[in-house]
Design brief:
mainly beta; six-stranded mixed sheet; 3 helices; CheW; CheW-like_dom_sf; Chemotaxis protein CheW; CheW-lke_dom
Length: 171
């Protein structure tokens, strides 16, 4: 299940001019998802979450990351999956979406992989689930398929505005 797509070390890869085709993979409910590494700021163990009343159920609250208040979004709930207690593998993927920094809570992080463009296929349209708007494609990785997520669509304009009201703008 852990297929290697590229043979270069991370250090060699980071010296190249591009991160095109690099994806961070994570799991939710035993399904593998991925997003472009260019959005990733850092991966952290899940810190305590301060809840904020009146927010959407998938917005769990805010975390304090070295003095910066960052909104925390439970991706499992955003994808309309059943809620699950957090465990020792649960972590926060801190991502930057334009001027907004947000922590995405996922079941576990897997690896960074390279998916060549010719291994990426448009996402099949199965049903009209709201969660399907976040899925942009599938990536073939050996015998596995990764579901590619468009992070820029995780929040609607209205939701994005509400998150910005927490004062959690990036630098």
């Amino acid at each position: 299940m852990n297929s290697k797509i590229f043979t270069k070390t991370w250090e060699e890869e980071s010296n190249e001019d591009t991160m095109e085709g690099l994806y961070l993979t994570f799991s939710l409910d035993n399904r593998d998802y991925a997003f472009e590494v260019r959005y990733l700021v850092e991966i952290v163990a899940l810190p305590p979450i301060t809840t904020i009343p009146g927010t959407a159920s998938f917005l769990k609250g805010v975390i304090n990351l070295r003095g910066k208040v960052i909104p925390a979004l439970d991706v499992r709930l955003r994808f309309q999956m059943e809620s699950m207690d957090y465990h020792d593998r649960t972590c926060a993927l801190v991502v930057q979406l334009e001027d907004l920094i947000i922590a995405l809570i996922v079941d576990k992080v897997n690896e960074v992989i390279r998916i060549p463009k010719d291994h990426i296929d448009p996402a099949p349209k199965i049903g009209d689930s709201e969660a399907s708007r976040f899925i942009i494609a599938t990536g073939r990785v050996g015998d596995d398929v990764k579901i590619l997520v468009d992070l820029t669509k995780l929040l609607s304009d209205e939701e994005s505005h509400a998150v910005r009201q927490t004062g959690a703008l990036g630098t």
